[in-house]
Amino acid sequence: MKWDISTMGAWKANEFPGGAVIPEAGNSNDYVTGGWRSDRPVRDEAKCTQCLLCWIVCPDASITVADEKVGAFDLDHCKGCGICAKACPVDAIVMVPEGCDLPEVK
C-alpha cells in the first residue's frame, strides 16, 4: 500500500495514518522480553562491593536492589547487553552464554 502524502500539510491530527502505537506507558513489565538474550550476567558475590553501578547503568532495570544491596538479575527482562559487566569496577559480573553452567568462582 502506498500513502498519498501530497496533502499532508493540510491534514488534521485525526487524519494521520496510524503508526507504531504504545497504548500505555510502562507496559514492559507485562511482557517477558529477555527471550532474545544470548548471554546472561552472573555476579560473584564475593567480589561485589555493592557500589550499585550495575543497577544505575542497566537500561532495562533488570537488577534488583533491596536494602541498598544488589540482589538478583531479572532475567525475564534482561536483554544480555553486558553494560552491567562493563561498568563493574571490580569485575564481579561476567557474561556467560545462555545454557552454560555458571562459571567457577575463583
Which key terms come to mind for this protein?
mainly beta; two-stranded antiparallel sheet; 106 residues; Alpha-Beta Plaits
Structure overview:
With 106 residues, the protein is mainly beta. The chain has a domain at 43-98: Alpha-Beta Plaits, CATH 3.30.70. It has helices at residues 53-57, 83-87, and strands spanning 39-43, 63-66, 69-73, 93-97. A two-stranded antiparallel sheet has the order 1-4. Strand 2 (63-66) and strand 3 (69-73) form a beta hairpin. The longest helix has 5 residues, at 53-57. It is elongated, with a radius of gyration of 21 Å. It starts with 38 loop residues before the first strand and ends in a 9-residue tail after the last strand. The mean pLDDT is 84.
Short description:
This protein has 106 residues and is mainly beta. Helices cover 9% and strands 18% of the residues.
